[in-house]
Amino acid sequence: MPDHEFAVWAPLPELVRLDVDGTLHPMTRSDDGWWRATVDAPADARYGFVLDDDDTVLPDPRSPRQPDGVHERSQLWDPSSVTWTDSDWAGKSIEGAVIYELHVGTFTPGGTFDSAVEKLDYLVDLGVDLVELMPVNSFSGTHGWGYDGVLWYSVQESYGGPDGLARLVDACHARGLGILIDAVFNHLGPSGNYLPKYGPYLTEANTGWGQGVNVSDADSDEVRQYILDCALRWMRDFHADGLRLDAVHALADHTAFHILEEMSSDTDALAEQLGRPLSLIAESDLNDPRLITPRDRGGYGMTAQWDDDIHHAIHTAVSGERQGYYSDFGSLESLANTLKHGYFHAGTYSSFRHRRHGRPLDTATIPATRLLAYTSDHDQVGNRAVGDRPSQNLTYGQLAVKAALVLTSPYTAMLFMGEEWASSSPFQFFTSHPEPELARATAEGRKAEFAEHGWDADEIPDPQDPETFQRSKLKWDEVDTGDHARMLQLYRALIELRHREPDLADPWLDHMTVDYDEEQRWIALHRGTLTIVCNLGDDSVTVPVRGEGVLSSADAAVGDSTTLPKQSFAVVRTS
């Protein structure tokens, strides 16, 4: 058996011993809090660490594999053992692309990486450029959203473990698809988090999902490195083309060199080393353009960020919903303002927050492709009380208008799995915590949260009920039937148009003008020689846009003006 060096950062315990396949070995501590031991071990050895006088064998904080779950021993896994076929992969930037967000467990009946591979040709035919996986790091239980991960370096075993993920990435690249991984570095899940036993990984601050991660308090240097090494691991060892970073506003960094700036710098260095582009997409609630401002201009240098304002502006204008954080949106004026400027709240008062919010985006220097536009994502569907999709509440025409506003916009576009055929499946919040008390608390907390907002508690699905998970799986037999097939055809046409037309690739918001009529409920986006005209109203409307019809969702009459049936759009070539 070959020698293997085991190492763990554990500044808190006085004694750390290594367990390899049931045999204990002493470890030596260095001044920096790292413990090391070199031991003969097979390539698939199960191992863990025993701290002080507690005989419990704990998993490795940097565990590469957890075959028996997050509470058990880790297992060695060598990334160099993977047989890759993507040596010719040149990479793919996310800017201006069409991204397809999916949850591995509900994307297919099988719910694994290998079963997802079987649907990649479908995604190629749809026309998307990159796949974005919701978190695949190890979490407690067999199914869940993945945002309660506790072992960030290992891959969820029920999905297929690290080898399954490598096969999926390789298969994506073989088909010309990029792949992004959703990474959660702002909090840890409630089950299986043993990091505080090793060192000061957490702070007393509460993120709303649990204790904050120590990225700037005392002894935070190694915690920061733990995060940075994990981020690079997904892109280096698993060949991912980038990361989506969950809720970065919950990373409370008070240092002069923010961890996001450091991650951006490290990612650019890795991209140069690998010879292909790597992207970082931030999810942020701050409307802060510093995230996507280049580092040499004082920003953090993220490639892009999710833009909920665009979602809210489109959804409320089409659907009429106004509750909660939708309260400031809904008018065509707010829709036009958001599409034109990127943020709706840009140093303006937010009635939901009861304060000013956001900061203006410099549209002359920051391209629109650094913001992601979408009509749905896992949050905007799954965090509704019953996980209902827009397709369960809106008409074909309304869904078509929403799709057109996103896919013909200057922004990087994102779809949420199944929206392209108006899937009838909800996407509900589901968990599989093995601890009865945690399971009960999760279910009761979910009901209480939405009951406070006026929902009937009896309607709130139990996250722990296996049927909640099963209901959320896509129904692939819908794809070729009725309005589902009609919607899919429209999405394919919109994506093909987006890729084909140079005017739709123009990333500069200053080059786009927007007209609208609040009373007649129409809005028009003028993009070079193309104008996208949308009728959000319930009556036919004639809009003063002349030209030749290129694509429409209904029988639009295009000539000296454009007449649209209710709830429809048309793309018009004006010159």
UniProtKB/TrEMBL annotation:
SUPFAM superfamilies xrefs: (Trans)glycosidases, E set domains
Domain of life: Bacteria
Annotated positions for site Transition state stabilizer: D379
Active-site residue list: D246 (nucleophile), E283 (proton donor)
Bias (Basic and acidic residues): 62-75
Subcellular location: Cytoplasm
Pathway: Glycan biosynthesis; trehalose biosynthesis
Domain Glycosyl hydrolase family 13 catalytic stretches: 101-498
GO molecular function: 4-alpha-D-(1->4)-alpha-D-glucanotrehalose trehalohydrolase activity
Keyword Hydrolase (UniProt): yes
Residues annotated to bind substrate: 244-249, 308-312, 378-383
Reactions performed catalytically: hydrolysis of (1->4)-alpha-D-glucosidic linkage in 4-alpha-D-[(1->4)-alpha-D-glucanosyl]n trehalose to yield trehalose and (1->4)-alpha-D-glucan
Region of interest (Disordered), ranges: 55-75
InterPro entries (UniProt xref): DUF3459, GH, GH13_cat_dom, Ig-like_fold, Ig_E-set, Trehalose_TreZ, Trehalose_TreZ_E-set_sf
UniProt KW keywords: Carbohydrate metabolism, Cytoplasm, Glycosidase, Hydrolase
GO CC field: cytoplasm
Swiss-Prot/TrEMBL GO biological process terms: trehalose biosynthetic process
Pfam families xrefs: Alpha-amylase (PF00128), DUF3459 (PF11941)
EC number, as in UniProt: 3.2.1.141
Family from the record: Belongs to the glycosyl hydrolase 13 family.
NCBIfam families listed in its UniProt record: trehalose_TreZ
Protein name: Malto-oligosyltrehalose trehalohydrolase
Taxonomic classification: Bacteria, Bacillati, Actinomycetota, Actinomycetes, Mycobacteriales
Gene this chain is encoded by: treZ
